[in-house]
Amino acid sequence: MLVLGIETSCDDTAAAVLRDGRAVLSNVVSSQPVHSLYGGVVPEIASRHHITLVVPVVTAALDEAGVTLDEIDGIAATMGPGLIGSLLVGLCFGKALAFATRKPCVGVNHVEAHLFAVLAEGRELRPPFVGLCVSGGHTELVYVKEFGRYELIGSTVDDAAGEAIDKVAKMMGLGFPGGPEIEALAADGDPGGITFPKARLKRAGMDMSFSGLKTAVKYFLETHRPLTEELKRDVAASFQRNITEVLVQKLAQACEAKRVRQAVLAGGVACNRELRQAAAAACEELGVELLIPSPPLCSDNGVMVAVAGTLRLAAGERSPLGLCACSTLEEVLDAGASCAGWSSQPRVP
To answer: Rounded to two decimals, what is the model's pTM?
Structure first.
């Protein structure tokens, strides 16, 4: 089965062709550096760039794979969550291709795609397992009972981890995206040099909060200006350690609670070396095999969309041409269609 995957949930226009959900024949990603001027993604600018880029990116993916559109067996496009204007470009283009070529089309849940990206690198996933998707827009803990049956057991109640990182990087006068900038600065800093608070939510469960941490860093920076280079490095290292410890603690807690033997760490923030190492050490201590995609498959890409799309197409699923793009995970789950099978753990107010 040859599947074309299209991803436009944020500011990366991506497309890929996969054979049987495992063999990557092409992987094309076009980023939008213009957002670095604003210190964050500007939704309207992102969607306009997707309109310009989606045709050449998809064409390049087909050319790189050495296949024609007629040879494609199915088309998968991200339906959400993400920036609604950006999502509409990729999803509508995917549906238009499917209509014009009479190919089956399936809408893909962006979080689900991240969790199964490791399949494209020859890794074996054996549900049940716990997945942590952490990026600029997402921080979700998911219990994967089997493909197509998921339980959302924890998420951020405010800022996503990657969002907090980008905002702190902007406060410190660093570039965008902030993750690589913070990590590079933290490499020479003291992670125990500054004590920043960790949010203690009153309600039970595995939810997380990063807004308070971001605010604490803001106040620290304001009261210690001008910052010396040494202090900037310590701020970056202490901030990074704080986020890492929270994420790893919640991942380990979820693995213990669900008694799984495998876990997946995915999403753009999973490129961070300290997080990868800390999560691997914690899972090893629990006797849990941790799978993490290589950095190119942690960031948004068409490969992961094609993987999830292949699994759903192989299961006989098809999305109607009236399928809508959804900006939030809750809307994606409510939309049903090809993203059914999710449930949420009851939350304590």
So the answer is: 0.93
